[in-house]
Amino acid sequence: MSKRYRFFIVLATIAVCFAFLSPTLRWYFMVPKEDQALALGSREQIKTYSTRKAQADLKEIELKARESAEAAVPSNLGFLVATAKANYKLAKLPAPASWSARAVLAAFASENEALEAIESRYRTEVLKLKDLHSSAVQLGLDLSGGMSVVIQANLDSIKEKLGRDLNSDDREDAMNRGLEVLNSRIDRFGLTEPVIRRQGEDQIYVEIPGAADPERINSIIMGKGKLAFHMMDEEATTAFTSYYAANPTNTFDGEGKLLDPTIVPADTVVRGFYEKDRYGLDELSGYMVIKKEVGLDGNHIKNAVVDRDPITGRPEVTFILDAEGGEIFYKLTSANVEKTLTIVMDDKVKSRARIQEAIRDSVRLTGFDADEANNIALVLRTAALPVELEPVNQQAIGASLGEDTIKQGFNALLGGIAAVMVFMLLYYKGAGINAIIAQVLNLYLMLSVLSAFNLTLTLPSIAGFILTIGMAVDANVIVFERIKEELLLGKSRKAAVDAGFDKAFWAIMDSNITTFIAAMFLSQLGTGPIQGFAVSLAIGVMSSVFTALFVSRLIFDFGTDVLGQKKVSISWRIK
Prior knowledge:
Layout lengths: L2 H27 L3 H7 L3 H25 L11 H12 L10 H6 L4 H25 L2 E2 L1 H4 L1 E9 H8 L5 H21 L6 E5 L3 E7 L4 H8 L5 E5 L2 H13 L21 E9 L5 E10 L4 E2 L3 E8 L6 E7 L1 H13 L4 E6 L2 E7 L7 E4 L4 H12 L6 E10 L5 H26 L1 H23 L3 E2 L1 H30 L4 H33 L2 H35 L13
Parallel strand pairs: 1-15
Antiparallel strand pairs: 2-4, 2-14, 3-4, 5-8, 5-11, 6-7, 9-10, 10-13, 11-12
Helix pairs in contact: 1-6, 1-15, 1-18, 2-6, 3-6, 14-15, 14-16, 15-16, 15-18, 16-17, 16-18, 17-18
């Protein structure tokens, strides 16, 4: 392989790694702490913040407009000028001579339109930060705290299903299967290094590292895959809609139950129809009267695949039915052609579809955003929980190490790396610079891979990186010692470098391959801290081999062929 080709490979690797590492650098070093706290809040909190800020800003610009016709737009609302210009252009109106507060407000048809424009700005900024955080390296519980949840298993529900009292084996089996499903869900959702353990006879304790969103955690942990298909009573829905419009305050009680159940047929129930708002939250958009009888239970869904509608581009979920479910669904759709089918999840109507023809094997429905579609598919793929779970305690927990202790730990890490680099420089002279470059690039690659796969950084992970750095230095030492031996035999720089790398190659590969195999076994069989250590070690092994054998060799060849160096500065004994 030519030097130019190898050089481009290194440059391309650095560029790709920078793209992966960029979200982490931006989140931890460029986003202010107050903005981080805001982005880590729930979507309801973000909605409240955006609405309040927009209302305050609108009052401010309205006050400016009332004070003077020439009052300037507040600096924090300068973005409204561009929107105002677009509105004037769309309405084919002449633009004003100056964009004062009054002129900007005049570009909006109503106060609500101006409020929405301001709120949209805040919403977009905060949600972008939320997405940035999800792409950055996450810190574990020991570094940044996280969330702990104590979950109560409702074993009585198993008793009702079995129709008899539970013995110790029944209880043990239900709890073990519940733990297994939770482990599978949390692992597939990308929540790395969780702590999931049984607590007492009927409780499960879960720790999730990082600033976790409570809603997302609940959807993962407590999601039962409770999904069913119901036929809609269209005539009753139309009648109820008219009734509710005339009696909006006298239809439901405080618990959401009908004050007068007789307004809908006895075999039906009223459910809210929800659509996603701009924050990705469920927003009630109306009510539907659906049949109480379940047309098809979600237990007959054997797989769920997320795709996009080829026409609209919106996320959709395709549910693959088992044989029994396919037969039930075929009978249901055959008997209800030209009628409306609803999909109900957690007592919310999430989607509806007009039945055009009988369907047997699968059903494709929209009405979900991308995250929710993936969550639904994942919950269904990991199966329904064998026992009903309810959170009895959910709280944010602080890091076990204080911020000062963390800084001291990282300072110690950097100090150790610096000491190794100084030693390499003093002992191996000019070749030590080669080793330093390789070590810096090695650390850069490891952090980039960590960021690329959205892994969690914990103290065991850091320990794995430190071990890897020591192994990478060891690889450089093996290569340098082989080169020194060749130079002492009187060989030229090029011949010594070639022979040194050739003789060191298999010694380095053997040790790293065995370490990598051990790390892979640990990552698959271990959990929690052990898994974090193993993953970071595996990443480090691959990056250290690349830097020690590929990058370091390129640096030596560059000095030989491009700079024309005849000697190797590698030892005080060799001139």
